[in-house]
Write a structure and sequence with these properties.
Shape: elongated
Number of strands: 3
Helix content: 55-70%
CATH topology of the largest domain: Arc Repressor Mutant, subunit A
CATH superfamily of the largest domain: Winged helix-like DNA-binding domain superfamily/Winged helix DNA-binding domain
Number of helices: 8
Order of helices and strands: HHHHEHHEEHH
Largest sheet: 3 strands, antiparallel
Length: about 180
């Protein structure tokens, strides 16, 4: 990497890490090492960029989004290609109304069907159609290639192992009693 490239990269990262100060004020300067802001804000920025790019990869695949593929992928892996709509929302961490709107779109395209749940009159089941199965496989292939190229290709095996360890530990902490957002 040239000196010019390094300066440009540092400038981009400085703009990203400045967000920590905007969000948390002087706490950042008082309590954080120089590595804290790039770690936190870098994680958030990378997540945002990869999500936008993934949606861009899926857009040409029948106008899908990552959230739509999340629904269809869950249905593709379910018994009888069917799940309750409420279970889909819970598994995805999205509101019921958001998932309902996404399913409306998928249903209008003939990719899923809604049916009353035979064991609970209050519930609605969602089933992946054969057209939905075909499109799901195509979209999953596109996203797999994207993740391999845009994320994993830049990492060595030990770095992948480190990230897996770190994220597993941090996500596990979110489930601990007393964690922010826990019930």
């Amino acid at each position: 990497m040239t000196t010019h490239d390094t300066r440009a990269e540092n400038g981009r990262m400085a703009a990203v890490t400045a967000r920590a100060g905007y969000m948390m004020g002087g706490n950042v300067d008082r309590a954080w090492s120089p590595e804290h802001a790039p770690a936190w804000e870098g994680f958030l920025e990378l997540s945002r960029q990869l999500r936008r790019e993934a949606d861009g990869v899926l857009e040409p695949v029948e106008g899908l989004t990552v959230s739509m593929l999340g629904i269809m992928g869950r249905l593709a892996g379910a018994d009888d290609l069917t799940l309750r709509q409420t279970d889909i929302a819970g598994a995805m961490g999205l509101s019921f109304s958001r998932v309902s709107r996404l399913i409306d779109t998928l249903e209008a395209r003939g990719l899923v069907e809604r049916r009353p749940c035979p064991t609970d009159a209050r519930a609605v089941n969602v089933t992946l159609t054969s057209a939905g199965q075909t499109l799901t496989r195509r979209a999953q292939d596109a996203i797999f290639a994207f993740v391999e190229e845009r994320f994993f290709a830049s990492l060595a095996a030990p770095e992948i192992a480190t990230l897996a360890d770190v994220f597993t530990r941090l996500i596990g902490r979110l489930d601990e009693p007393g964690a922010a957002g826990a019930c």
